[in-house]
Amino acid sequence: MNNLNPKEIWSKATDQLRVEIGEDADLWLKPIEALRLDNQVLIVKVPNRFFSDGIKNRYQQRLISLFKEISGLDISLDYEISVDLTNRLPATDPISEPVAQSDFTPSDFNPRYTFASFVVGKSNRLAYATAEVISKNPGVQYNPFFLYGGVGLGKTHLLHAIGNALRQFSPKARVHYTSAEQFVNEYINSLHHKTPDDFRLKYRNLDCLLIDDIQFLIAKEACEQEFFHTFNALFDSRKQIVITSDRVPNEMTPYERRLTSRFEWGQIADITPPDLETRIAILRKKAENEQFFVPDDVILFVASTVKTNIRLLEGSLIRLKAFASMTGSSLTVDDAKEILKDSLPHGSSSPVRPETIQRVVSHKYSIEVKDMKGHQRTASIAMPRQIGMYLACIMTDLSSTDIGRLFGDRDHTTVLHARKKIQKMIDDDPFFLEVVNKLQSDIRAVDN
Known about the structure:
Layout: H1 6-21, H2 26-29, E1 33-38, E2 41-46, H3 49-58, H4 60-71, E3 76-81, H5 125-136, E4 145-149, H6 155-169, E5 175-179, H7 180-192, H8 196-204, E6 208-212, H9 221-236, E7 240-245, H10 257-263, E8 267-271, H11 276-289, H12 296-305, H13 310-327, H14 333-339, H15 354-364, H16 369-372, H17 379-395, H18 400-406, H19 412-428, H20 430-447
Parallel strand pairs: 2-3, 4-7, 4-8, 5-6, 6-7
Antiparallel strand pairs: 1-2
Helix pairs in contact: 1-4, 5-6, 7-8, 11-12, 11-13, 12-20, 15-17, 15-20, 17-19, 18-19, 19-20
């Protein structure tokens, strides 16, 4: 027994498990460390009980079988709880207190929107870096700066962060934030009150113009022309212009065609929905800012469920805080599911082709589509097959009988069993939920 290396046994077993399940097993296996072998019991260190319960329910039986294949002995598995998820979820840096601004007004820059409070990830790194450079040296390197992306991903946060930083570094700079809608309303009011010169004086003598949601100005001919001339006046004076939109410039159809080309003169960057690691960091930083303790399993559940909108992500945390404040009890994943059930996304209801589901799932798990329709029952094929049947149930308008026929002439009870099994795994496992959500996203991207 002394000749057996627990780390080697664990490494070989988990390598095989990854082959059978896919790289997504790493979400569970990476934070776990083999410690020792005592009386044919392999002791592993797990971050918390959430992980030990997850391994027990999902992989323990298979791991024990693999231990025997590797060592020839009946080795069981036990757990030693250590600290929280620091291996998997490194702590975020503390949020810096915003610098007080003597000339701050409620309609100007939000002091909570700073570079320090912005969580940087793969989805926004270029946008963040460009904004930070601009805040230190406006009107020089990236002018104009055109930032685009979906709703609630942090575009407005970066505009205010630029404004707050410029106020700090250059207190005398004339910096103005406005939405395109407000720009339009101000211009219309200036015409109504016969004060267009005052309007132009205000906007054309700025050192930095930060304008949000420019798409709302497009196709308003007079306002477009006014903004076009404002843009030219600022650009020719080497003043910084930062613009946000929900789409790239070449997808816009302004009356003033030259406006699109001007948007493309400088730097263009996008912000996309954050990945799981970034969503976790956002929730941790928000919880820290709110002085609210959230268990890591709850953070994982929310981060795995709310994927496309940071505002919804942070809003979910505020709802959980309200519940905890009223009840005085510690949050659990079951609490979070109940509290957020009305606001969590449920996916699109438009049907997709079952062939697309089979192709995407097969590619994900490195098997052939014919294997999903075959009769092999090995774990490496059975699980993707069940996932495929589950996705066909929720993403197509086919009956369970039709789905069974497409998956190798299986009867409808097999399909219902697969749906029930996968749904339970989704309900129990936020990591697996992330896998299924990503598959749905990939399927719709291919099918559209």
